[in-house]
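Aim 2, interim progress: modelling of the zinc ion-bound target.
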Amino acid sequence: METLYQYGWNNFFEEYRTTTEKTGFDTARVTYIKGFKYGLITRDGEKESELSGKLLFGSENENLPKVGDWVFYLDYGDIGYIVDVLPRKNALTRKNPGTENELQVLAANIDYALIVQGLDRDFNIMRLDRYITQILACGITPVVVLNKADLVTDTSLYLSEVNKLGRNCAVYFCSTYADIGIAELREQALEPNKTCILIGSSGVGKSSLLNALTGNSVHETDSLSDATGKGKHTTTSRELIRLENGSLIIDTPGMREFGVAFSEDDQSGSLFPTIGELAEKCRFADCMHINETGCAVLEALANETIDEKVYTSYLKLTREQKHFSTTLEEKKRLGKQMGKMIREADEYRKKYKY
Ligand SMILES: Nc1nc2c(ncn2[C@@H]2O[C@H](COP(=O)(O)OP(=O)(O)OP(=O)(O)O)[C@@H](O)[C@H]2O)c(=O)[nH]1
Ligand SMILES: [Mg+2]
Ligand SMILES: [Zn+2]
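Predicted structure of the complex, ligand included:
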């Protein structure tokens, strides 16, 4: 079990294992997925595996194993067969790009998400707020990493922009080129046996950071010297690795979209603390903070006690959330109707035997 604990196994999973009758199966953690192959870290080391037919054909995509998941598997010597996924402590999700109401699970059982932005044209405060909101909704602690600090002379401007969001998350300025902030990140943000994930747009330096953190080149990075743009080492799959200090880290491919996908219940003050706090002082309990009289949010906006971006981001994200959950409900409702029709047709067929 020693190895498993080193890879993040804890009482949460141990309790489940001991209370479930899965005798004959071992547990392991998914470290990568390449096509039909699942990389596992088992008590005896690495083992490449596949999904059992039951799991492959009997599960919704979001319930299939993802990087970071703990699974039950059968050992067949050369290969393992994954038979089940243990309950997740949490999962990093987003709206599946190109869909209206599909959830995409990016990785499971995550303690920290390092949101990486580059201090070049990539820096975008609204996008940062979007990432933070969705990550909090997933029950994951967000950490802000502003990379390429070598490109700017004054980082304090960026820090005050981030602080205006009122998010209270740790902010690190890093440069893999100038070796700025890497040691702090390693020592303060990464904990032994805890899992963190690097996320952000393509080219912000996630893999470069991972390499700097490990001190060696585990992940190839895009090279600036390649003027043709060919042979870029953009990351194409997620992979969990263990660093020397015992922390676990997942590198991911850059994301173009990070659509929010959380439920209405999560939309309370905890996801938008600045707005939530003000909302308590609005005249109407159901105030939408759009044009109501006696709205404390609009008042704060008018006298500039809150930043306009905080408000704009709140409106944008809650609208998106609303759209996501209403289309999801609609889909479920239609699904139920469809199910009912099929059942009725079946009964009708049985009754009249045709
Ligand atoms: N100026 C500057 N450039 C950097 C720094 N770190 C990385 N880069 C450059 O940024 C580019 C992208 O780096 P990667 O580490 O591959 O970026 P990534 O986020 O992993 O990209 P994807 O895998 O496509 O998501 C490369 O050309 C790096 O050399 C930095 O600290 N400063
Ligand atoms: Mg990369
Ligand atoms: Zn209001």
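The chain has ten helices and 13 strands. Residues 91-251 form a domain with the Rossmann fold fold (CATH 3.40.50.300).
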